[in-house]
Specification:
- One of its GO terms (cellular component) is membrane.
- The chain folds into 2 domains: 272 residues, no CATH class; 109 residues, 3-Layer(aba) Sandwich (abc type-2 transporter like fold), CATH 3.40.1710.
- The protein contains 17 helices and 4 strands.
- α7 packs antiparallel against α11, α8 runs parallel beside α13 and α8 packs antiparallel against α14.
- The two termini are 27 Å apart.
Length: 403
């Protein structure tokens, strides 16, 4: 059965008019990605920052036996930790009222004078990221105090302190601020854009298939001169357009995020995050990103149209399509912390993972022709398969009018 482009155009115009009349669809595809993307992005950054950031002047700790090590306690106090008293330190630590407990033994000073080893306990709650970080800070303070004691002992015996520390390890971060920012973007951007592109046409797919069945407008449409392949093509293109719009508006939302970031978190926070707002990618990368959005959108649109056409009602279609939302999240989390160096050729062939993988490379400004071709060829295969699947479902009377 041949496709009549005139009929396709008529169906497409009709579906797009209906879609743009639907305020909910407009909100979901235009407004929501622009609003939620910056909001979620900023919440994730702020939450991550606040979860691990330790401000000593606001952090409560308890020291048991502080009278036995006044010099050490004075050093800890100089770090501006809020040292509080507690009748039950372990319980307060577990309840989150304090972030760490230091236990200093009664024989602390005596053992130091006799040059014996002495144990100091630092109790933390490893399930609390702040408590864990406070423990690391306190451990470093006490370790430095111990090193100074060792140094004084050796100097008193006319021994060079360097003899016990022949190797000093210096860890240096060679990643420039831009690369640090790209790492953060490579985690978040593919997630937002690909999710919106793959799921953005879902409501439209339900409306043009199961929605029409429920309203009783599908049967009259099938009696027109337009062939079923022309009808499904027009409907499919309209769903694809809505999905593409959703993906593109999420990109716009990300642009808005970069503009808002310094205003909301402050310039200091922006510098810590690698000056994301100052990032600039070449035009060729944005063109490639658009191609990824389009291919992802049109593949998932065909699958969603096929599945929704099997449903008898709007609600039933939502039930059938809900698993897709969860299936889409699996590859998102699977590739989230991968860097371009971790991506094997197979990543650019597997459905959806290929979109996420190519997006990561593009964010880093990498245009790998081999990977791009693998992505385009594999996506084309999935596209053809999904369109055939959708058209077969739409042509099947038992599927369309099942009781």
């Amino acid at each position: 059965m041949r496709i009549n482009m005139k009929h396709v155009w008529i169906v497409l115009k009709k579906e797009l008019k209906d879609a743009f009349r639907d305020r909910r669809a407009l909100f979901m595809n235009f407004i929501l990605p622009i609003l939620t993307t910056p909001l979620i992005f900023l919440v994730i950054i702020y939450a991550s920052k606040s979860a691990f950031e330790v401000k000593p002047e606001k952090t409560k700790i308890c020291i048991i036996g502080e009278q036995y090590a006044k010099q050490l306690v004075d050093i800890i106090k100089s770090s501006q930790f809020d040292i509080v008293q507690s009748s039950n330190p372990k319980k307060d630590l577990q309840d989150g009222k304090i972030k760490a407990v230091i236990e200093i033994p009664q024989n602390f000073s005596d053992h130091l004078l006799k040059e014996k080893q002495v144990n100091i306990k630092i109790l933390v709650d490893e399930s609390d990221s702040k408590s864990s970080n406070v423990g690391s800070i306190l451990n470093e303070i006490i370790s430095n105090f111990a090193k100074n004691i060792t140094k004084q002992r050796l100097l008193a015996k006319n021994i060079n302190p360097e003899i016990i520390e022949p190797i000093v390890v210096i860890k240096e971060n060679v990643a420039p601020p831009r690369k640090m920012a790209l790492f953060l973007l490579a985690i978040l951007v593919p997630m937002f854009v690909v999710l919106n592109a793959s799921l953005g046409g879902m409501n439209a797919a339900i409306d043009v298939t199961a929605g029409e069945k429920e309203r009783g407008t599908l049967e009259p449409l099938l009696t027109t001169a337009a062939s079923r392949i022309s009808l499904v093509t027009g409907k499919y293109i309209s769903v694809s357009i809505m999905a593409i719009i959703s993906g593109v508006t999420s990109l716009i939302g990300l642009g808005l995020t970069f503009w808002l970031l310094p205003l909301v978190l402050g310039k200091d926070a922006t510098k810590e995050l690698g000056d994301i707002a100052a990032l600039a990618l070449p035009a060729s990368v944005y063109i490639a990103m658009f191609i990824v959005v389009v291919l992802t959108a049109i593949i998932f649109s065909a699958v969603e149209v096929a599945i929704a056409s099997y449903a008898r009602s709007f609600k039933e279609a939502q039930t059938y399509l809900t698993p897709i939302t969860f299936l889409v999240l699996i590859p998102v989390y699977f590739t989230m912390y991968k860097t371009p160096n971790d991506l094997a050729d197979s990543y650019f062939i597997i459905p959806l993972i290929n979109s996420l993988a190519i997006f990561k490379e593009l964010i880093y400004g990498i245009i790998n022709i081999q990977h791009l071709l693998l992505f385009i060829v594999s996506s084309t295969v999935y596209l053809v398969a999904s369109i055939i699947f959708a058209s077969k479902m739409f042509e099947n009377e038992k599927v369309l009018f099942r009781s």
